[in-house]
Amino acid sequence: MKKEVAIEKPLKLIDRSEIALVGSNGDNGYPNIKAMLKMRNEGLRKVWFSTNTSSMRVAQFAKDPRACIYFVNSSEYEGLMLVGGIAIHQDAETKRLLWKEGFERYYPLGVNDPDYCVLCFTSKWANYYHELENATFDVE
Amino acid sequence: MKKEVAIEKPLKLIDRSEIALVGSNGDNGYPNIKAMLKMRNEGLRKVWFSTNTSSMRVAQFAKDPRACIYFVNSSEYEGLMLVGGIAIHQDAETKRLLWKEGFERYYPLGVNDPDYCVLCFTSKWANYYHELENATFDVE
User: Fold this and answer.
1) Largest CB tally within 10 Å, which of A53, A80, B14, B87?
2) Domain tally for chain A?
3) What is the CATH number of the domain that holds A106?
C-alpha cells in the first residue's frame, strides 16, 4: 500500500468522526473502553478530549498513560486504531482553548472548574482497515 | 438506581447493536480496540464473534483472555461496557452454530476452514451510562 493511501483515508475518517472510543488499562489488568467526544485533532498525531477531573478515565491515565483511540465507520467496514499515550492537562490556557458553549452543564463553575480538565492523546502508531485492506504504520 | 432499570436499558442497547468494540491487551502493555460484528448474544452475559484464526485479536486473546466489549449509541450519549474474558472456540459444532451465508468471502474453505474460529466473551461486570445517569453492576 502506498503511503498517501495509508494516511489520506484515515485522516478523512478521523476528521469526520465526532466521537472516539478511548481504550485504557483498567483494574486487575483488564482493558477498558469509553466513548468520548473528540474536541479537536491535529492530523493523526494528536487528539484532545475534555472530561471530569474526578472521572474514572482520569484516575486510570494518571496511573498508566498507555492508551489507544479508535474511530469507526461501521457502514463501510472501516476502522482506525491509534496507539500512544494520554497526558492530563489542568492549566488554564489549555482548558480555555478546549472550552465549548454548553460545558456549564458538566462543569458548573465554568472554564476554571477544578473538575474540568483536558486529555491530550499523542499517537505512536496506527492500524487502518477498510474492507479487506489493512495497513499498520508509524505516526510521526 | 433500581436493578430493572440498570438491566433493561443496556439489554436494549446490546440487542440492537450490530457491532461491538472489542478491547484487548496489546503489545508492550497498551490497550487495543477493534470493531467486530456481534454474531449472537445471551443477554449481557455472553457475546459471540467470528474471526480469522490467524488474526491479531486471536493471538492476543490466546496470550491474555482479559477483555472488554463496548456498545455505543452516540446520538443519545449512551454506552455500555462489559468487562470479562474471551475464549477461543475451534470445535466444529460451535463453528457451525455461528456460520452465516457470505462467510465464504472471509473463509474460502467454508465452515471447516481452519482459519475460521469463534470468540465467546463472558461478562463479569458492566458499566452503563445514558446522559448523566451512570451505573456499575455485576453480571450474573
Assistant:
1) A80
2) 1
3) 2.30.110.10
